[in-house]
Amino acid sequence: MSERGGAVSRLVLAVALLALAAFPWAALATGYDFYTGVVIRVMIFAIAASSLNLILGFGGMVSFGHAAFFGLGAYTAAIAAFHGITNAWLIWVLAVVVSGLAAALVGAMAIRTRGVYFIMITMAMAQLFYYVFVGLRYYGGDDGLRLVTRPGVGLGIDLSDENTFFLLVLLWAVLAHWLLARLIRSRFGLALSAIRENDVRVAAVGYGTSQYRLVAFVIAGVMAGIAGSLLAMHNLFVSPKLLHWTQSGSLLIMVALGGVGYFYGGIVGALTFLLLEEVLSGTFTYWHIYVGLILLAVVMVAPGGLCSLLTGRRRTATPGGGGDA
Amino acid sequence: MSTLVLEQSLNGLQFSVVLFLIASGLTLIFGVMNFVNLAHGSFFMIGAYLAAWISGATGSFWLGVAGALPLAALIGVALEWLVFRRLYHRDHMVHVLATFAFILIFNDLVRIIWGPLPLALNAPPALSGAVSILGVPYSSYRLVVMGVGVAVGLLLFFLVTRTRIGMRVRAGANNREMAIAMGVDIRLLFTLVFGFGLVLSALAGALLGPFVAVEAGMGDDILILAFVVVVIGGIGSVLGAAAGALMVGIVDTLGRSVLPAMLSSVLSAEYASSIGPALGSMMIYLVMALVLFWRPSGLFPART
Amino acid sequence: MPDALAITGLSKRFGGLQAIRDVSMTVAEGTVQAVIGPNGAGKTTLISLLSGRLGADKGEIRLFGTPVHALPQEARVRAGLARSFQITSVFNGMTVRDNLLVATQRALAPGFGLLRDRAEDQEFRDAAARVAERVGIARHLDATAAALPHALRRRLDVGLGIACRPRVLLMDEPLAGMGHEESEEMVELIRSLRSDTTVVLIEHDMEAVFALADRIAVLVQGEVIAAGTVAEIRVDQKVKEAYLGEEET
Question: What's residue C237's pLDDT?
Fold first, then answer.
């Protein structure tokens, strides 16, 4: 990417972010403020989907249990609020710790395995967490748990104002994707891609592949946990369904729709999926069948998702990195 | 208490049998084609729906089962031929996405065709009585289900270990390139294994129909259990599927039924009745974690 | 001065098959030790045992005096024991430059390197370029590995081994699938490696072996039946029988 090309795309990105930041007020002015909530959800799921994209698209790990970390983050927020913690900073620290530990635990077990076993173990472990929350009647069980108030960040900022909350989520989304970009462009990112390409050779070149995959898995889990906590703060409600393996399936669909292994895959995918959900559920009684058909079409015909169609070129095996001419 | 334990143990055995039917197909599909088939649970559902529909129309449970199987086979083979065989060479993520798409499609399809309410599938009236086992009355139908399952299991074992087809299946599971080199018609073999696996799943659905609500999504949760069975038992191995199914079926059933009863003597009834089943459901995954810790490839994997 | 590689009593069994039986060998620094033998002799198994891909049942492996037989593969690589593969094993979707960078960044930098932009690591890229130069694929640095012809992919495979900065390089049939001219070039490359590293060479191509090797060990059914200089092995009766025996069947 030339110096000039880089500058142009950075400018485009800056403009896009500014436009997005102005969205809630623009929506309010034009009477479309309902969509502020929709865009908040898109941003939250974009963080979750992108975190899955890290391990799936770049690391080649097919995890069917990612919703567990998402849900754990959400429940951390809800349970903390239940016990009177209203400091969002503290909640985020807790969410990181909880989802990080869970990811380390699940990862330690799953990473020792290959292929099909990995998929099934991640799926099963996520179900384990699902049942934990179904069984915790004290925290609502199957019925879910409400948050009485939205936790606050202090500093004189009122998060109960939807527009302010929007900006907070936007900030988190930018931070998460900035982190993702740095990871991909780092030595770690190259190693991760190499592990995906040929894990036998990468071990023969001196990498402890298990450690690398575990680190990636935990980072992804923590990111999903933060996203989950934000969802809890947004909806003021959590339920065990957030951890069900079919929710993991939704996250996978988002990444697939957007483009596995493309940097913007998670964002594009979350946007597309949630928009589809809005449009389809409003039009048809039974709309999951259409999501299924679209997913099938993507898999068979456009395996690189929307990003591949939009950019018109194959995903590079090592996006980013200064090695390109 | 001991009556409860005995009865639930028998239920656990029965559930094991059903799990075995589903898991054996799943493990063979994994083992022979290296294909991750999430739609396996959907065929459990399709089997139940078809059986309910046909038996509802004809008034006979067994006609329902007999009719459901070839129909399910047809659908399965069509699916394999049209979609799945184009995906074998691609990586697991693609398999997962494509078969997950079919879960979504089938779950809505059954609702579109048969409506959102559960269908009734009643056990044959001839078997509605009970038989006395060690002094405890036990449903004859459940015993018949166990019998059918064991018979199918033995048939499968015989097929896989003693026939030429079975040998080719095992060869395919063990070493695909070698099997191809030795002249096995791999495409036909794949279709057969796929179709047969799905039919077993449909049979399980039809047999279990009288006990569970025949509704959309009924295959989703049992799919996970089947996966756990396959992981514990080892991929590609029918023996592993049997061992795993026994473990999972009994632990899960006892966990959900006996555990709450045991807990209620320690905790208040309210907590026992909610934590109990959840804890019981969790037991399976804990067992799986333990087995994998000790044997990362499962108990009897076809390939080490 | 310890031997570059000292192997004593190495054994490995797979179920009923004793693949490697009590193999011992010493390799002096800066030499080329060839290992030859008929098909199925266990040569690739031996390499896997040395590289750490497989664990031996019995025996010791010492790299410049340091025991490495208990170390996992990645630790052995960092200690200086690297390999190249018989069936080309490279990172197909990546450019040649990135392929080699994967190896050089590992060899030159400890730690995960989570946040630092690769673009700032000029040192590692330069090292990668030098390796490419060494194995003669410098012109193809920006080509995707999958697009390269077979011979150049083999060179990349060897390059990945060299990029690890090994003190001992295990080469598993580097000439596999190469035509006459390409083989000659590869032989030259291997010969030039002697100044940087010690080579253990598994090869079927006898011409190459006789041209390159300082010492030869002959492996038949997992056992070393003969070991010595090129001249000694050429006239060894047992070796002749082993190969003639193979031709007759």
Answer: 84
All residues of chain A having their beta carbon less than 8 Å from the beta carbon of residue B271 are: 137
Residues belonging to chain C: 249
Radius of gyration in angstroms for the set of CA atoms belonging to chain A, rounded to a whole number? 20
Do the Cβ atoms of A121 and A113 come closer than 8 Å?
yes
Q: Which domains does chain B have, with CATH numbers?
A: 2-294 (1.10.3470)
Whole-angstrom distance, CA of residue A249 vs CA of residue B115: 24
Residue B180 token pair: 């191809």
CB count in 10 Å sphere of residue C152? 21
| pLDDT above 90: residue C179 | no
The dihedral through the CA atoms of A70, A75, A78, A84 has a sign that is negative
* Class of CATH domain C1-80+167-249: alpha beta
Residues of B in Cβ contact (< 8 Å) with A253? 97, 100
Domains detected in chain A = 10-311 (1.10.3470)
Interface touch A323/C101, C-beta < 8 Å: yes
pLDDT class of B304 with cuts at 50, 70, 90: very low
- The size of chain A, in residues, is 325
SS3 label, residue C24: strand
Q: What angle do CA C184, C188, C192 make, to 5 degrees?
A: 170
* β B130-133/B136-139 pair status: antiparallel
Please state, in angstroms and rounded to a whole number, the distance separating the CA atoms of residues B130 and B139: 4
Best of C54, C74, C88, C108 to substitute, by most chain A Cβ atoms within 10 angstroms, is C74
Residue owning tokens 């004809």? B58
Written as six digits, the tokens of B157 are 């074992």
Cβ under 8 Å to A: B residues 81-110: 83, 86-87, 90, 92-94, 96-98, 100-105, 107-109
Please give the DSSP secondary-structure letter assigned to residue B86: G
Helix count and strand count (H, E) for chain A? 13, 2
Would the pLDDT of A319 be above 60?
A: no
Rounded to 5 degrees, φ, ψ at A104 are -65, -40
Closest residue by Cα to residue A95 from A141, A46, A47, A25 = A47
Residue of chain B whose alpha carbon sits nearest to that of A126: B285
C-alpha angle C146-C147-C152 in degrees, rounded to nearest 5: 85
Rounded to 10°, the helix B186-208/B61-82 angle is 150
**DSSP 8-state symbol, A142:** G
Task: Say if residues B19 and B248 touch (Cβ distance below 8 Å).
Answer: yes
Cβ neighbour number for residue A239 with a 10 Å cutoff: 20
* pLDDT tens-digit readout, C97-115: 999 999 999 999 888 888 8
Q: Which residues lie below 8 Å from residue B180, measured CB to CB, with a gap of 6+?
A: B186
How far is C230 from C214, CA to CA, in rounded Å?
7
Cα separations (Å) of A220 from A26, A48, A58, A209?
A: 33, 8, 11, 17
DSSP string, C125-148: HHHHHHHHHHTT-GGGTTSBGGGS
Locate B72 and state its tokens: 């399910």
Distance from CA of C83 to the nearest CA of A (A): 7
Could you tell me the pLDDT band of residue C248, with boundaries at 50, 70 and 90? Answer: very low
In this predicted structure, what is the pLDDT of residue C207?
A: 86
Q: Do residue C72 and residue A208 have CB atoms under 8 angstroms apart?
A: yes
Q: Judge whether A4 is closer than 8 Å to chain C, CB to CB.
A: no
Q: What pLDDT band is residue A321 in, cutting at 50, 70 and 90? A: very low
- At B274 the pLDDT is 64
* One-letter identity of residue C156: L
Cβ partners under 8 Å of residue B225, min gap 6: B19, B248, B252, B284
Question: Collapsing DSSP states into helix, strand and coil, what is residue C70?
Answer: coil
Indicate where chain C has its CATH 3.40.50.300 domain(s): 1-80+167-249
